[in-house]
Amino acid sequence: MNEHRERRLRTRWRQAARTAVAAAASVGIAVLAIGFTAGAAQATASPADRGTSNVSLAAAPVSRVAAGDLHTCAIRTDGTLWCWGNNFYGQLGDGTNTNRTGPVRIGDATTWARIDAGSSNTCAVRTDGTLWCWGGNSNGQLGDGTTTRRNSPVRVGDATTWASVSTGANHTCAIRTNGTLWCWGLNRHAQLGVGTSPYVSTTPVQVGTATTWASVTTGYAHTCATRTDRTLWCWGSSSDGQLGLGIREYRGTPTQVGTATWNGVTAGYVHTCAVRTDGTLWCWGENGYGQVGGGTGFQTTPLQVGTATSWARVEASIDSSCATRTDGSLWCWGNNGSGQLGDGTTTHRSTPTRVGTGTTWADSFAVSYHACAARTDGSLWCWGDNSFGQLGDGTTTNRPTPTQVALPG
C-alpha cells in the first residue's frame, strides 16, 4: 500500500477540482434553472446574517441537507427531495446533466428520509428502508453492480432495512437497521474495511460481523464509524494521521480509536473530527488549512479543539470543518478560500470562528467548498463557492456569509 502514491493522486484530484472551480468563476458561467419556477431569493436577515439581501420570500422547511463538492441536495419536511448545482455526472438526479442554480425536485416521491452527497454522486434512504444512489460511478460507488453513471436515482439491491448512508470521493458505506455495516466502491486503500481485496466492489460488502454499528462517515480514502457502545473505529488510509491511531499507514479493517466514548464522527478528505459524550470536540489528520482546529502540522491522534464542553455535532469535508454547540451557535474553521466558513472573509481559520451571532442553527448542516445549514424554523442557508449555482440562490456569485435558499412550494 503506497501512501506516497496516494498523496500524489490526492494532490492531482484537488488541483483538478480547484481548476474546474476557478475556470467556472473566470468565465462567469450562468445556467438556467429549468423547473425552478419560484426563483431563488435571499431572505431578510438580521445583522447576525450579514451579507444577505433584504428580499423576503417564504421558503418550504428543510429537514436534511447534504453538500457535495459542487452540488447540494435537501429533503423538505414533506419528504420531497431537491437538488441544485453542478450536474456533469448526473449527481442532481433529475434525469439530465444540466447544471441548476436553483432547487429542482427529484422525482415525485414524498418518502425521502436521509441524504448524503459525495464528490460527484449522491445517495439517499427512503422511509421504507430502501437505498438509492445516482451520479458518478467510475469506481462502483453507486452500489448497483455497474460502473455506469446514473442521472436519476437507482436502487441499491433489494434490501428494505437501510438506516443511514455516507458517500465520499470514491466509496460509500451504509448501516442497516440490524446494526450491520456495508461498504462498496474503491478499495485502493482498504477503505471498505474488508482488507485490501477486492480492489473495487460495485455492490455492498459486509464489514465484519458486528451488529452494533450506529453511525458511519466516509472520507477521501478512509472511513470511521461509531458503535452503539459509543466506541470509535477507523480504517483505510492514514497518510496524514486521519485514522487517529498514531500512525501514517493504512489499516485494512476497523481499528478502535482510543478508549473514549463518542457521540458522533465525521470524515473530511484527509482529516477527521468527532464529539465525545462529555461535549468536547476532537480532530486529527491533515492540518494544512487549520482544519484540525489547533496544533501545527498533521495530527496522528485526536487533538482537543479548545476547551468548550458544549459541542453538539460536527461536520467535515474537503479541508474545512463546522460544528454546532448546544446553544444553537454555529462555528467553522479550516479552508476559507471560497468563503465557506461564513465569516464574511476568505481568510483561513485554524480555530473555530463563529458564523454570525445566530443561536437557532439546527443539527442538519454540511460543508465542502461551500456550506449549507438549516435553522430550527426549517429555513435553509448556504454560503461559499457558487460557481455552479450550488448555493441555490439563482446566481453563480460566491457568498461569504449565509444566504437563504427558497425551495419552491
TrEMBL record:
Keywords of the record: Repeat
Keyword Repeat in annotation: yes
Domain spans labelled RCC1-like: 55-356
Gene3D superfamilies documented for this protein: Regulator of chromosome condensation 1/beta-lactamase-inhibitor protein II
Superkingdom field: Bacteria
Keyword Metal-binding recorded: no
InterPro entries in alphabetical order: Gal_Oxase/kelch_b-propeller, RCC1-like_dom, RCC1/BLIP-II, Reg_chr_condens, Ub_ligase/GEF_domain
SUPFAM superfamilies: Galactose oxidase, central domain (SSF50965), RCC1/BLIP-II (SSF50985)
Record-linked PROSITE patterns: RCC1_3 (PS50012)
Protein name stated in the entry: RCC1-like domain-containing protein
Species whose genome carries this gene: Micromonospora cathayae
